[in-house]
Request: fold
Amino acid sequence: KSKQTMKMKLLSILFLATTLSDTLGFASQAIKCRSVPAATSQLSATQAETDAERLLRKARQLREASQRAEDNLHATLIQKKTEKDATTDRIITQLFPSNGIDDLVDRLRQKRLASDMLVRIVERLHEREIAARGLEHVEPSMHHDQVTFKRVAQADEVELAKLDGIVHELIEAAEVLDREFVEQKSKADGGKITHAEMMHWGGGKIAEILKDKLKELGRGQDEQFKKRLQSFYDAANRDNHKDKDAIEGNSWRDDDVWSK
Reply:
């Protein structure tokens, strides 16, 4: 009987151990199943964060490259403009000051300047006159390999005296050359003007071309002046409206309002 009892106890202990082992195994498997999605989710989040950082870095690099390309383009344009202005200024120095219209006509004959160069001279003289008069204009400059633009308005009386009237002298001298050109063509070729002569020498109409360019530059200057003047008016009106609104907003505090 005691053996039977002992056997029953052993069987009970064995069954309990087996049940406990199965339970622990199932729990372990469940924990593993739950941990796999969590690890996968964490890995996905890390991967997404890495992709976002990569895209941001790429966008930043593209933005920096675009800025460098823009700065290089501006720097190249500024350099070309500076070199072009220097060349034009040298020619202006060779033409002016002159000892009257006849002397200027002789210098133009010797130079044999094409019509586009004469137009450049008019444009450059206009630019220099704007600066010398102290009228506000924008000038580019390089600062730490970056292009900056600044508003400049500083008069130069010495420069202005040198430029006074020479554009009109140039146009008057061009009129003399135009008449000579037409007379020569009428005697030699029966007045026939080739396309090359029209493009290079203006076809006897250089003075007219220069006058039109001067008028165009004058209109541009007038339009800029009107825009600046309108901006001043708009700013003044905004300030007046602000003051008026402030007064009307506080009018209820006035004792006279309540005494009526």
Residues 256-260 have pLDDT under 50 and may be disordered. Helices lie at 2-95, 101-111, 115-132, 157-163, 166-188, 195-201, 206-249, 255-259.
